[in-house]
Amino acid sequence: MKMTEDFDIHNVRVDPRGRFVVIRINPRLYKQHVIMRAADDLIHDQKDYDVIIDGDPDTEIKAKFIPKSGEATSEELLKVAYKFNTILVSCCGKG
Q1: What total of structural domains would you count in the chain?
Q2: CB within 8 Å of 28: residues ≥ 6 apart
Q3: 32-77, pLDDT tens digit by residue?
Q4: Could you give the 3-state DSSP secondary structure of residue 63?
Q5: Is 66 helix (H, G, I), strand (E, B) or coil?
Q6: Which residue has the higher pLDDT, 37 or 5?
Q7: In a domain, 57, yes or no
Q8: Among candidates 70, 72, 64, 85, which has minimal Cα distance to 21?
Q9: Complete edge-to-edge strand list for the sheet that includes strand 8-9
Q10: How far apart are CA 25 and CA 11, in angstroms?
């Protein structure tokens, strides 16, 4: 799959230089503790990523995943974003 310079699809933004991926999360759909649990589950599974959770809990929360190596391919970052979204949906039923 060929990536554009600034790949942005739905709630996912992949940095064109491969430095991070940001997932925008609607806090009306997912409670803050569920988002944190999903991020924790992902970084335990993907040990080569750091995470930053930020945003306004009333409008939009952002989860930013940063490769510890400094860079990743757009495809790798997109996989991390999709895995996070999958975990988030799975955690929602538990939260």
Answers
A1: 1
A2: none
A3: 999 999 999 998 887 899 999 999 999 999 999 999 998 899 999 9
A4: strand
A5: strand
A6: 37
A7: yes
A8: 64
A9: 8-9, 12-14, 21-25, 60-67, 49-56
A10: 7
Kindly report the pTM of this predicted structure: 0.83
CB proximity list for 83: less than 8 A, separation 6 or greater = 42, 45, 46
**Euclidean distance between the first and the last CA atom of the chain, given in angstroms as a whole number:** 35
AA identity, residue 89 = V
State the CATH number of the domain containing residue 19: 3.30.1360.20
Ordered DSSP codes for 12-58: EEE-TTSS-EEEEE-TTTS-HHHHHHHHHHHHHHSTTEEEEEEEETT
What does DSSP assign to residue 88?
H
The boundaries of the domain holding residue 45 are: 8-92
